[in-house]
Amino acid sequence: MTSIEMNRSNWLRRNRVIPGSTNLFGKRRELHCVDWPSNFTATRGIYIKSNRKWYMDMTMCGVGCSILGYNHKEIVQELKRQLERGSHCTLNSDIEIACAEELLALNTWGSKAKFFRSGGEACAAAVRIARASSGRTKVLVHGYHGWHDWYLSAALSDEAALDKFLLPNIPVDGVPKELKGTIEAIQDLTADNISIAINNSDQDIAALVLEIGRNDMPNEAELKKIRDMCTQRKILLIFDEITSGFRTNHGGMHQSTDIVPDAALYGKTISSGIPFSALIGTDEYFSGIRRTFMSSVYWTESLGPAACIATLRALKRIQPYEYMREIGSYFRERISELCQEYLVSSEFSRIPSILSFSIGGEDSSLVQTYITEKMLSERILLASRFYPTMQHKRGHVDRLVRAIEPCLKDVAAWQRGGNPLNLIGGKIRSTTYNTLWES
Ligand SMILES: Cc1ncc(COP(=O)(O)O)c(C=O)c1O
Questions:
Q1: pLDDT at residue 131 above 90?
Q2: How far is Cα 21 from Cα 10, in angstroms, rounded to an integer?
Q3: pLDDT at 438
Q4: 285 C-alpha vs ligand 1 centroid, how far in Å?
Q5: What SS3 class is residue 112?
Q6: Last residue of a domain, one of 318, 339, 366
C-alpha cells in the first residue's frame, strides 16, 4: 500500500467507528483535501509524524494550543514529574492553588479562578454562573464559544446567527426549542449594535460574552463604551480569551487595553495541548455559584494545572509575543507578494499571530484544496490559518514559499482557462458540517 492509500484507508476505518471520523470538526479531512493525513504517531517542534513521514506544520499548530511548539521539553518534564506524583486521587491536588494564584496574578481584576478541561464547557459554566449571579436569562454573544446548547440556541431564532463565527447553516437538532430567544448573536462588535440589542430585548440581559479580537485587534474606544454600558445596566461582561489569550501579549488580549471584564475565559494556549481551561472572575460575578450545581471528577486532576503552570512560566520567561508577530507578518508578506506576482488574489486577517487567509478569490475553495494537496507531497501541512509558534523560523516560511510557487503558476494558468478538478481527485474542500467523503 502506498502512503496515500494507507492514509485514505485510515480515514475510512475512522469513519466506520467514530461518527464524523473525528471528535473535532476542525480535524476533518473534508476541510482540507482528500489525502489530508489521518492520524499522528509523534510530534516534535513544528513537525508531525504521520504514516511514517514527518510533516512541517504551517497550520494553527494543534488547533492553536501550541505556542511553544509540540512536545516542548520543559512541559514534558513537568508533566512526567506530576504523573509520577499522581495525576488524580481522593484528595484535591496541591498545585491547583498555585495555578489559581498564577492566573489571578495575571488578572488582578479577578478574585477567583475555576478550572475545567475544555473551552466549550468553561464557556457553558461561565454563562450558567452569570445567569445564577444576575438572576437573568438572556445572553448576548460575539464569537465562537463551543458546542453546548446554550450557545447553539442562537441559531434557533435565526439560522444564520452563528455563520460568521462557526459554519454556514449549523445544524442544531437536539437543542431544545424552548431555548429560543435566550441568546442573541451580535454580528459586528460595536457599542451601537449592543445598545440596540439591549434596548430591543424583551428582558434584561444577564451577560455579554465576547471574543474581543480574532481577525482584528480590539477597538479600545468601542470596548470602553461597551464596558460602561454593561456597568450601567448591570450586565456581566465576559471575555472569551480561549483563542486570543497569550497570542499578542502575556495574558488576555484585553490586557493590552485599559478595559477589565467581570470574567475571562482561558483555554488552548495556557496548557500546551493538555486538557485544561480556566474561568477567572470577580467576587460579584461568582456570587451566584452556590445557587447552581457544578462539579466534575476530572476538573480536579493534576496534569492540566501542571501543564498550565509550566506553560505560563515558560511563556513569561521567553515572551514570544513579538517573535510570533514577526513570523506571522513574514508569512503574510511572503505569500501575498508571491500571489501578487502571479496575479492570484489573496486576503489575510490583521493579527499576525492568529492569521487566517484566503487564496484564489472566488475560486478559493478549489485553489486552496489544490495547494493543500500539493503541499502534502512536499511534506508540509497548510490550510487556511497560520498560528506561528516559537519554533517557526523564517527559513520554514521560505521553504513553504518555494514549495507554493509552482502551485501559484498552475493557478494563474487555470484562471486564464482550464479545469483543475481532475488534479484534486474531483473533491473540493467543504466547510459544510454534513459533508463526509465516503472514499
Ligand atoms: C474563543 C473560543 N471559545 C471556545 C472554544 C471552544 O473550546 P473547545 O474546543 O476546547 O471546547 C474555542 C475553540 O476553538 C474558541 O476558540
A1: yes
A2: 10
A3: 81
A4: 21
A5: strand
A6: 318
Residue type (1 letter), 16: R
Pair 306, 372 in one domain: no
Domain encompassing residue 13:
3-67+320-424
> Residue 346: which CATH number?
3.90.1150.10
Residues 6+ apart with CB under 8 A from 346: 335, 336, 339, 340, 357, 358, 359, 360
Q: Is the pLDDT of residue 420 over 70?
A: no
- Tell me, yes or no, whether 251 and 129 share the same domain: yes
Same domain, 110 and 216: yes
Is residue 120 within 6 Å of ligand 1 at its C-beta?
Answer: yes
Q: Give the pLDDT confidence score for residue 423 in this predicted structure.
A: 65
Give the pLDDT confidence score for residue 16 in this predicted structure: 93
Whether ligand 1 lies within 6 angstroms of the CB of 143 is answered as: yes
C-beta separation of 69 from 394 below 8 A: no
- Is residue 359 within 8 Å of 346, Cβ to Cβ? yes
| pLDDT tens by residue, 319-343 | 999 999 999 999 999 999 999 999 9
Quick check: CB of 288 below 6 Å from ligand 1?
no
Are residues 307 and 350 located together in one domain of the fold?
no
Question: Residue 43 corresponds to which cell in the numbers above?
Answer: 510530534
Q: Where does a domain end: 249, 283, 318?
A: 318
Of residues 79 and 432, more confidence is placed in 79
Q: Which residue has the higher pLDDT, 422 or 349?
A: 349
* Total domains, the chain: 2
The predicted-structure confidence for 261-306, as pLDDT tens digits, reads as follows: 999 999 999 999 999 999 999 999 999 999 999 999 999 999 999 9
Residue 41 CA to ligand 1 center (angstroms) comes to 24
The protein residue with its alpha carbon nearest to ligand 1, atom 3, reads 145
Residue 125 alpha carbon to ligand 1 centre in Å: 13
Give 40 Cα–ligand 1 centroid separation in angstroms: 22
Cell matching residue 272: 500546551
CA distance 439 to 421: 16
Residues 226 and 294 in one domain: yes
Are 142 and 270 part of one and the same domain? Answer: yes
Do 298 and 331 sit in the same domain of this protein?
Answer: no
Supply the pTM of this predicted model: 0.97
Write down the pLDDT at residue 421. Answer: 64
pLDDT band with cut points at 50, 70 and 90 for residue 413: confident
Structure-block grid coordinates of residue 393: 523560523
Query: pLDDT-based confidence at 422, cuts 50/70/90?
Result: low
Q: Is the CB of residue 242 below 6 angstroms from any atom belonging to ligand 1?
A: yes
Judgement on whether residues 287 and 378 belong to the same structural domain of the protein: no
Other CB atoms within 10 A of residue 399 CB: 16
